[in-house]
Specification:
It is built from 20 helices and no strands. It is an all-alpha fold.
Length: 443
Amino acid sequence: MTTMEWSKLLDLERLFLTSSQERPRRPAYDQDADRITFSAPFRRLANKTQVHPLYDNDHIHHRLIHSVETASVGRSLGLEVGWWLEQEGKIEKGGQATVAGLVHAACLAHDIGNPPFGHSGEAAIGAWFAERFERGEGLFADREACFAEEFEAFEGNAQGFRIIAGLEMHRRGGMRLTHGTLGAFLKYPVTARTRKSVAARDGGLKKFGVFETEREALEAVATRTGLIAGDISASWWRRHPLVYLVEAADDICYNILDLEDAFTAGDLSYREAAGMLSAVAGTTPRDDRGDTPSEKMAFLRAVAIHKAFEDCSAAFGAHYDAIMSGTFASGLVEASAQADRFAEIGRLASERIFTSPRKTELEVMGRNLVHRILDGVLPVLEALAEADFTEERIEGYPRQLQRALGIDLRRARDPYSALHTLADYVSGMTDRYAVKIDRIISG
């Protein structure tokens, strides 16, 4: 059975660089984390929806604080699993820090491609593109050449990889993060078109995670880290083992903290939220200390995160052989002792949190707003196409609109790249900036 090798999986060379300078006092994975932290797309997460759109309560999570918390849990998972790998002789001494550092950096970036208004914004973008491709006019006339499936099921994971490996900082290679960090980030190491054509089903094929524009970067990361190629062809790969730690950190944080946010927002009572957290934590808060319900929730959240972290670390060891051979078809939370409890949290969230009246109303508003922005900005790209993709030849209102909205057209060279330019512009907006742009466009 083919297995992956840690000597390749933890590769610290940078994307599209033949060599990079070693800095012993500042490891490459720490540089990765710094590049992500100081980037504009990461900073914009502070005003992007986690679950509750446009909330005035500062205690409700947004994407930035969720990413920071996920990175904290991810680093702890990396330290625990890295220690176990060292003790088992599977990685060299000192490798624990590398495992933790790569997971930490990948966790910081894991939501960097999410559009405004969270998953509802993601769905809104996809629905708009699907309607346009169905009409088949103008830029949308050639489905095959424009890889319509990338846009019709718009995916924040793929947009995130596009940002860190293509758009941000450098013209080629984006942030030029290490292959190890990029491998840990690639939750779905497959393009939309390849996924569509592959019959096999795998944990890494639940969605697509890479656009055709970043196929070269995907291939470089897969080759350098030694990912196992898929059964059908070499154009998709099995997951990097550290993806499971990044995914587990995300699952732990959003499930547990969604409960706390739901209590804060008034969508769940204290008894409902605390009952769920107590089941994960295996304990209840003391009643003789005079703590407020919010303080009791904070206690339960901390203990629940720690317990889930321990159980997911144990699950990694229990399923190590399957993970390393690329045959593990679950997530660590689902494979852990917490599986049933987290499934119950998911059911409660679906029934009570994600369907709360305020959230639903704002999601409808957000969908319409995203569609209006896409409708309003599209004429700029259409004018660019009529001008043979020469920006200087755009005239009249489209030129005025492009300047007013600050739309970067440098990458738009044909219909396919023009549509990505449109998606880049809209998906990069914060919730509040999207509201502002909608007002400008709508008058």
